[in-house]
Amino acid sequence: MPELPEMENYRGLLSGRMIGRTIAAVEIDREKSINVSPEQFRREVVGQAVSRIDRRAKHLLFHLTNRRVLVLHLMLGGMMFYGRLEDKPDRSVQVRLSFGEEHLFFIGLRLGYLHLHDEEELGTLFSKLGPEPYDPQLTPERMADRLRLKNSTLKNSLVDQSVLAGIGNCYSDEICFHAGLLPARRTSSLSAHDFATLYVSMKELLTEATRFGGYMEMPLFAGDTLTGGFDERCRVYDREGEPCERCGNPIARQEVSSKKSFCCLHCQQ
Q1: Are 218 and 89 in contact (CB under 8 A)?
Q2: What range(s) does the Formamidopyrimidine-DNA glycosylase catalytic domain occupy (predicted)?
Q3: CB atoms within 10 A of CB 166
């Protein structure tokens, strides 16, 4: 599932291709992927230009010139492709936004969605989300307070979107490895030093992952060499049995809070 680095990568790449362009047509092949009727969706989207693209947690927000916003959550299996029809991957498309000869294809939206909202609804829509990892008001102390709220495992607390927004299964494991902490640790067992280390690791790891295009490998457009570049840089996620880059012991897979989790049982404490 795309997480903060993937969505931030998409935001940056799409901003340079879509902002200022007018949506000339819309094709909807799966009505459950949208939240209004196809007729209303087309009426309020076609003819509007994309004024900016934002990200909140794992969502992308396509702001239109009529102050309507397309809110995208790709969920598990969802992805996008931007380009001409002949370049599109051979995958089923649920929604297509057309900009003349180029299109934004929304693929695999079986669990994900592209919903239409007013700008004024966004505050309520995202009211249950926690702060972003890069929120300037999120200090190590405030992060520690939030992670301790439920006295759960570190893994479970990091992926809880009401605690922190944007981190999922992949980056929770990568952050824990970077910090030298086991995902199965209870947050109540962590010291102030542990939380300070975790805070630095979170920012450094997410920054690195975004810079290398996230871990999801399907190119966003023909010739895209950035997207998915972090996959080969993952230290533990989906690396079961491979040697740890720090100590050489095999990476282990565990179930932590009913979620698959990868770590080094030797050099993470």
Answers
A1: yes
A2: 2-123
A3: 25
Q: Which fold has domain 4-125?
A: N-terminal domain of MutM-like DNA repair proteins (3.20.190)
Residues 153 and 184: beta-carbon distance below 8 Å:
yes
Residue pLDDT, tens place only, 143-175: 999 999 888 999 999 999 999 999 999 999 999
258 vs 269: CA distance, rounded Å: 20
Name residue 108's amino acid.
G
Backbone angle region of 165, left / alpha / beta, with phi > 0 → left and psi within -120 to 50 → alpha:
beta
Is 30 in contact with 94 (CB distance < 8 Å)? Answer: yes
CATH number for domain 140-263, candidates 3.40.50.2300, 1.10.260.40, 3.30.70.260, 1.10.8.50: 1.10.8.50
